[in-house]
Amino acid sequence: MSSTGSSKFYGYKGKILRLDLTNKKAVKMEPSPELVRNFISARGFGAKILWDEMKPGTDPLSPESKVVISWSPLTGTTAQSFHRVFVVFKSPLTGGYFRSVGGGFFAAEMKFAGYDGIIIEGRAEKPTYVWIHDDEVEFRDATHVWGMTIDGTTEFLRDETDKEARLLGIGPAGERLVRFACLVTDDYRTPGRGGGGAVWGAKNLKAIIVKASSREVELFNPDAFDKLVEEQTNVYMKSPLFESFNKFGTGGVTYNFYTLGHNPTYNFKQIELENIEVFKTEVQEKYIVKHTGCYGCKISCGKKWKLTKGPYAGYVWDFPEYETQWSFGSTCGVTNLEAILVANNICDRYGVDTISAGAAIAFAMELYEKGIITEKETDGLKLRWGDGDVVIELVRKIALREGIGNILAEGTKRAAEIIGRGAEKYAMHAKALELPAYDPRAAKAHGLSYATSNIGGSHMIGWNHYEILGVPKKVDPFTTEGKGELAKRVQDFIAGYESAGFCAFGGLVTVGYYNDEDKMFELISGLLYAATGIEEFKNPKYLWLVGERIYNLERAFNAREGFTRKDDWVPERIQKVPVPRPPAKGQIFELDKLLDDYYKARGWDIKTGIPTRRKLEEIGLKQVADELEKLGKLPS
Amino acid sequence: MKIYIEFLSWASLKTGRSWMWLEVPGGIKVRDLLLKELPNALGQDVAKVIIDSILNGTLVVLVNGYAIPSLDYDLNDGDKIYLQPLAAGG
Ligand code: SF4
After folding, report:
1. Structural domains of chain B ordered from first start
2. Is there an atom of ligand 1 within 6 Å of A490 CB?
3. Can you give the residue range of the structural domain that contains A271?
4. Which among A139, A146, A491, A633 is most buried, taking Cβ atoms within 10 Å?
5. What is the rounded end-to-end Cα distance, in angstroms, of chain A?
6. For residue A349, is it within any domain?
């Protein structure tokens, strides 16, 4: 089963663009019918192509490493929230499979230009950008924009190409190979996690900029499609989740989630955060001056904040999302919203993942508190909890790899190894990806997803709507019973709708309306079928199968790289130290018990955490089983 | 007994207040607190908006940070009720 070959389906453009940076060669290939049928698009394309093309053991920062960027047959259509850009690569932070997702307008523009995806390979001799104008693809010198922030780069490259072109690129952090540097599009929309920006930086690739001359996507059944879009729009408007996303964006939940035991404070010490009230929406609302959104999405969950007082008065920038309000806020003990916005601004412009950056700073603050590092190692900075100015200065240092920032830019796991002296105990990560803004002790299936996720400590790979929202059914977040099955279900559900390129927030708004995942899949499969005419897509159950297939393939990628059960882990603090504040007071995370339950639910080998031949064959991945067997990685 | 009620996000805009303490009969259930006590405290019209939002799932009732399985939940003195709009973050 190869990734390319001959196919022409409605909805798709029938072309994947391969960019060979070493030889400045652009080749257009057709995605094979097998790739399309078995993996649909977006995350599915990324997982399959990376599995096929990336040899195990490849250094993510070498010319041999590859990046797959893709979207969906629904991208560029009138369907809502299907216009995301999915970036799949081997992470320089985790050493494993990674999928990172961003919004904005880039994916839609690429689709209109005639493509279903991009494969990036090789390394350019000098800083390079790629200009795509429909069929024309040019490799251009980027020396003059190397060193520029994203906003500057966008302005310069638009001047040289087209004023309305859309750009996906890296900032100074990616150029400096900060291990959690991100990609940025439309100034502040980021496929943020895992260090994709560093992979581009190592390839000397500053940006891809695109402008299409048509706005067309050919559909199989336009009338049926229009009806389903109408239904989708209706669902959005009536969903109980719409108002909150639309009014406040994800930042609307920071205080709420604190009351649920999330929004973990002080590097997961979880002591009460004084002044937590500043995160209430009544306070945040005063900063909002504009609502923004991605291509084709009525939710418009982006907000622009304006600062009018204090030392940062004058800033107008994209608001800090929930995760960022936590990463530069609660986990660093900071309750200064203005400082959090400025730290967010630096991250967006320099191209840094806000979650990993804030988590690395909280880690450094705890080391400072414990006397493991002193002002000698912090370039004279007093890393006191709650100091927003220190957070801002550390973000800058990380982005530019200055002083202590150079160590933190390696990610908390590696930084702890460099520092030694027991620092490992305070590095809050899973598979080297910094843990985000939920406490595994306060939601066990959600935490199980942190531990078992193929990309490390991610909240988006298995955002457990049962435990956190009580949708479609309330589940006690503190119990362990049945959590293996629940984590699996949600992971497959998300992989299923991400194979169609759907936004996770759109997903929550939709599932919040239907109170039923199968109904949501019915709508998505209806849209996919009306767009493409592919029979398999008609059946909503097929999305569950593809979701499970993708999840297992990603797991197999990591198994091939040497990952096993020992890597499905969360830090000692999470496993052993009871949460001190309500409502999760007294809770710990029962890792081993939960892992056994999860592997059983997955049909994976309990000893190694690797998919069995039986499971792989059941979901159409026989060749994957064969390859793992050849490499001696398949459980006996 | 006394029960603390907090109105989060847009719920506070609808009620014009962020929190309140309510004196209620001992052993009361959440349902009775909402239907019988809340209208006295907030006025019929405002209480109706809140109660309707709870019944249609737009507002979630948390007691001491825990999403209660049903409105027949027994309250104890000093319990904290959070009325939280169904909202999600990423
Ligand atoms: S919900 Fe928000 S992030 Fe998702 S597509 Fe819409 S505007 Fe973009």
Report:
1. 2-85 (3.10.20.30)
2. no
3. 251-434
4. A491
5. 24
6. yes
Measuring CA to CA, which residue among A467, A561, A611 is closest to residue A50? Answer: A561
* Residues 162-221 in A contacting B (C-alpha not used; CB under 8 Å): none
Model-level pTM?
A: 0.95
Say which CATH number the domain at A573 has.
1.10.599.10
DSSP A433-499: EEP-SS-GGG-HHHHHHHHH-TTSS-SSSS--HHHHH--SS---TT--TTHHHHHHHHHHHHHHHHT
> In Å, how far is A425's CA from the nearest CA of chain B?
27
Q: What are B25-48's pLDDT values in tens digits?
A: 999 999 999 999 999 999 999 999
Same domain for A428 and A393: yes
Residue among A86, A235, A503, A513 whose CB has most ligand 1 atoms within 8 A, to mutate: A503
ipTM of the complex: 0.78
Look up the CATH number of the domain holding residue A300. 1.10.569.10
Which chain B positions have a beta carbon within 8 Å of A241's beta carbon? 86-88
Q: Torsion-angle region of residue A545: left (phi > 0), alpha (psi -120 to 50) or beta?
A: alpha
Given A157, A187, A211, the domain boundary residue is A211
A463 contacts in chain B (CB < 8 Å): 88, 90
Per-residue pLDDT tens over the stretch A118-140? 999 999 999 999 999 999 999 99
Q: Find out whether A551 and A487 touch, Cβ atoms under 8 Å.
A: no
